[in-house]
User: What shape does this take?
Amino acid sequence: FSALADRHLGVRSDVVLGAMQHDTPGAMAYPAGSEHDWRTTGETPVPGKTLGPLVVVERDYPAVAEKWATLGPLVERLGLTTK
Assistant: This one.
């Protein structure tokens, strides 16, 4: 995978939508927990206020195998919480 990823994918940046965390300005934007769906109300979505934060994540595809190899011995014993 790493050899093909180096040639075809390389290092890329993705924009991902993060979750609104509890007791943050993003969560406080909804008084009394009344969320508004900005798609139907016509409100302007503001990342971190009326929308979860937008975060740039760097994906280093050629290093995936190297990163998985460094997980350590507990993974063999305990496993991973992924499918």
Remarks:
- The longest strand covers residues 11-17.
- Residues 2-78 form one domain.
